[in-house]
What we know:
By secondary structure, the chain is mainly α. It has one domain: MetI-like fold. It is built from 15 helices and no strands.
Amino acid sequence: MAKTKHYRHNNGAMYLMLTPYVLLLFFFGLLPAILGLLEIPKPSMANANGGWDAFKIVVHDFRFAPAFKHVLGFMAIFVPLMIFFVIGMALMLDIKHSPWKKWLRMAYIVPASISGAVAVLVWYVILQPTLSPIKGALKFFHLTESTQIWQQKNLVYILAIMAFFAVAGNWILIQYGSLQSISQEILEAARVDGCSVFQMAVRIKIPLISKYIIYMSVLVFAGGLQIFVEPQLLNGGIYSGIADAWSFDQLSYNLAFMQGDFGGASALSILLLIPSLLGALLVIFKTDMFEGAQGHIKKKNIEVQGF
């Protein structure tokens, strides 16, 4: 009887802690998605008759294809750069204990504390040949005028760099933390068997934190897909017209607040939700992110298989 009461008490505490998250998820996640779906078939300026043709109208909008091309190019640079650089830096940080390690961790997180709006101003100065602290490097590449840099064809690279430095530091520390969860017994056994530093990283550490890498990849992909702040500020505050409707989120913003087409904006938002939702389902059902027992089984299998 006492044990049953103890379990009920634990369940009550669990539900109490879970309630705020469930409420936030409903009011700021599920409810907006439901309202967006209900908004799609309503008549709008672009779809006077209403209906689910809003999806077709949005896809055939003359700005959709360029936005798709821009975001695809941005993601092709940003996502691989994030994954490989973050994992590489986390592994290097984990190789050897040093009294300087805490200062390195702080150095990683400081750039990540800069918000997207501030990052745009920072990189505007960095890439402005007359103001840049790296003007010598820019001059070496014959970049002496701002118009040589701030062009539409270069935005894919510039925005990828901005986004990378805004979030990479946080993820380096997160992945470094995941590396700390690896059993020291496994690492010692690998060293005894003659495992090199490279083999340790590739065949031991990376497989053991693979679920965290997948989790990071999904969130990085979803975040990159929704890029908005950087091109919007560039377009409206620095170089007018350089990034008009450059990304999907910008196009959705223009449809809703510039053209009054809330149905089309909702349709585009739902289209963007699908890949993010599929990525979340991948994390839940195809990894052991939320199932600790499977993680222990995987570790045991690696120990048995050896190198």
